[in-house]
């Protein structure tokens, strides 16, 4: 590939993870054949290039060139079982700090592309990490499955994602087991995110499951604005929004149109400005309605209506920016969650899952891998108007890591 030498140098610079001193080696003093951080870095690199299992990660170690291996501290040859034994013992301490250092390094880079918005945006949403009926998972609570009556072990994570950056990096996570809820996790996670990254964003977005007066009040107390989805879980406010916006006879305040998946997608925004005390919801200044229509070439149309409540007003975001803000929030699903599931295999594949601690450790390593891949992809030359496909970004990243390995020539037998 043309220019791979310079590209490889940039990849090595960003692939060298800023491991926190709190990441401790859990192995005994004897028998340490491989460097601890080299093994963890190998797992992150393997996840980032689309390898989903530990055996595949071990194979990557054999493919990586000597220069790359030396710069990143990767092992020369390692068995998948070695990686598995390490992950069963590894503690998560220091991994969140490593993720923070990784993101801060990228945000300081002026070449990191951002979306054109008046303020940065952090989106919070829950995502499943692992759900199983196949025996007890240590450290997780079990709940009865209503459909089959079997015990169900489940672990998810509420994630904070900087969706106003093109790469949509993961900033932090709060883990949620079967009997825990997202709203308590929101109140644990958001103050940490504001403390660590407050200078990079001014708006917090979330789906309707996190829309609650205590959560809205917390956002405002922390000096940020919110844009929260509205559904029937907030029946009074949702019904009021439907009624207030149903009578709007004016044209849409903002409109976008684009082609996607063989259809024309039209999005339109209507707003209702709130007077002080008009609704009983902390800091609410405006209600939003977004109508999304999918028009087929045969004239068929599918449409849906989505409602939002926000503390923003048109002195901070104009109508076009408000419509874009709603779309930016959906980026946590389209750019972040989808990639973790479809490219990194998070929902379907857990390479080490005997305990809750192991699941959490793998989740942190996958978050590091996603950020590595996504920041790399965001800087690749676009294909037309769009970023390169994720699968292609994985291929180019792997080529950049492997490049420089001496090729072995197979000689014919004498």
Automatic annotation (TrEMBL):
GO biological process terms held by the UniProt record: DNA transposition
UniProt-recorded Gene Ontology molecular function terms: DNA binding; transposase activity
Ranges for domain Transposase IS4-like: 121-368
Protein name: Transposase IS4-like domain-containing protein
Source organism of the structure: Hyalangium minutum
């Amino acid at each position: 590939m043309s220019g791979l030498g310079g590209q490889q140098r940039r990849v090595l610079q960003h692939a060298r993870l800023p491991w926190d001193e709190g990441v401790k080696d859990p192995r005994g003093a004897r028998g340490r054949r491989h460097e601890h951080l080299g093994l963890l870095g190998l797992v992150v690199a393997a996840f980032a290039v689309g390898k989903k299992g530990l055996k595949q990660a071990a194979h990557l170690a054999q493919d990586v060139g000597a220069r790359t291996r030396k710069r990143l501290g990767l092992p020369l040859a390692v068995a998948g079982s070695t990686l598995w034994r390490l992950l069963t013992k590894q503690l998560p301490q220091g991994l969140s700090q490593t993720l923070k250092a990784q993101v801060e390094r990228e945000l300081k880079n002026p070449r990191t592309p951002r979306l054109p918005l008046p303020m940065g945006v952090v989106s919070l949403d829950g995502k499943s990490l692992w759900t199983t009926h196949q025996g007890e998972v240590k450290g997780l609570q079990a709940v009865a499955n209503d459909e089959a009556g079997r015990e169900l072990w489940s672990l998810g994570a509420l994630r904070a994602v900087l969706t106003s950056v093109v790469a949509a990096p993961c900033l932090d996570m709060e883990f949620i087991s079967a009997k825990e809820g997202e709203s308590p996790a929101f109140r644990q996670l958001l103050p940490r995110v504001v403390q660590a990254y407050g200078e990079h964003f001014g708006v917090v977005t979330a789906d309707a499951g996190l829309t609650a007066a205590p959560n809205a009040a917390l956002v405002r107390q922390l000096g940020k604005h919110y844009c929260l989805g509205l559904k029937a879980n907030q029946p009074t406010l949702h019904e009021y929004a439907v009624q207030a916006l149903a009578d709007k006879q004016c044209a849409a305040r903002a409109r976008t149109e684009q082609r996607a998946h063989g259809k024309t997608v039209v999005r339109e925004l209507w707003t209702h400005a709130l007077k002080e005390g008009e609704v009983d919801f902390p800091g609410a200044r405006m209600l939003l309605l977004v109508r999304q229509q999918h028009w087929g070439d045969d004239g068929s149309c599918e449409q849906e209506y989505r409602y939002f409540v926000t503390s923003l007003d048109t002195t901070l975001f104009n109508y076009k920016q408000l419509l874009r803000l709603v779309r930016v929030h959906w980026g946590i699903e389209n750019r972040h969650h989808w990639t973790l599931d479809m490219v990194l295999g998070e929902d379907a594949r857990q390479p080490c899952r005997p305990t809750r601690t192991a699941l959490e450790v793998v989740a942190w390593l996958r978050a590091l891998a996603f950020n590595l891949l996504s920041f790399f992809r965001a800087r690749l030359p676009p294909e037309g108007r769009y970023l390169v496909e994720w699968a292609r970004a994985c291929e180019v990243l792997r080529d950049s890591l492997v490049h420089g390995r001496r090729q072995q020539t197979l000689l014919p037998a004498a």
